[in-house]
Amino acid sequence: MTLSGIKIVAEQEFRVRLRTGRWRWLLVAWVVVIAAFTSLLRYALGLARSASEVGMNNIGLPMFGALMLFVLGLALLVAPALAAQSINGDRERGTLATVQVTPLSAWEITLGKFAAAWTTGLVFLGLTLPFAVWAVLEGGVGPLRALAVVAVVALLIGVICAMAQGLSALFARGITSTLMSYLLVFALTVGTVIAFALVLPLTLKEHEYTIANDLGESTTRTEEVPQPQYVWWLLAPNPFVILGDAAPAPPMQFNPDTGREEPVISMDPLSTIGLGARSMRMDMTDYDRFQLYSSPAVWPYGLGFNVLVGAGALWLSARRLRTPARTLASGVRIA
């Protein structure tokens, strides 16, 4: 495996993509949607700040968080289309065998196709950067926080592209691999939440509370309290949980209600998701919200799991591209 071989395959994939004009229109549609969303979001936040009695500082904080969550959602819809037919599509058109008989190895073909798909996804992300800079200039978001969030989104796009390419190598038909790619995205986003909600009631545990009244009398009450610290890992692979938890903490400010320095999370959707995920690792029978800011992170486990699955998908792709092929699915053409 050589870098030049990977580059040759990637360049060929780019030529094929550029020959079809639909990618240009898709890029234009992406920019229009992002621009419309950012403009409407800024207008809505401006109205909220004007209507607020106490004022709303750091308007860039909610603007940037909502924008990056929206971009991630769109990227999860676009990424499967970039790689879901990269292998079986060439096989159906009879062009894959022409590449396989060249001195290029299976890993060079695999990584070249993956590099083309991931780079195309990064182009979509790059078109979002001007709007992210706009949010940063609104205040409340530091450059390091913005760069970290964008880097996580870029990595998640690559993971989804790798998974979709693995499904393209596994299934003989392009329509099947595309459908399975979107089902995989659904499982990582909505499916993890559904699984967590279904399993959480199984962790209920009785806990006794002692309540004292004004007369000094105390009563004991027993309630069933869920124990999410046993099943938090079900939410860890969720891309939105990973993004929210991996975002660096916003700046600390003095809270007059508690008399302590606390991060500003009331208007930050990323921090709200991240702290919500970290709270799942705490015992609900002994909950202290001040310990939440120093609770263990969730995103390393979720991101590590997704990266491992993506690496496994690339390994599967290389294995399915090895020649000579011992077996082929029924109806699959060679050349």
From TrEMBL:
Keyword tags: Membrane, Transmembrane, Transmembrane helix
The protein, known as: ABC transporter permease
PANTHER family attached to this UniProt entry: ABC TRANSPORTER PERMEASE, ABC TRANSPORTER PERMEASE PROTEIN NATB
Transmembrane regions: 25-44, 64-84, 114-137, 149-172, 179-200, 298-316
Protein's UniProt keywords contain Transmembrane helix: yes
Signal peptide (UniProt feature, chain positions): none
Keyword DNA damage: no
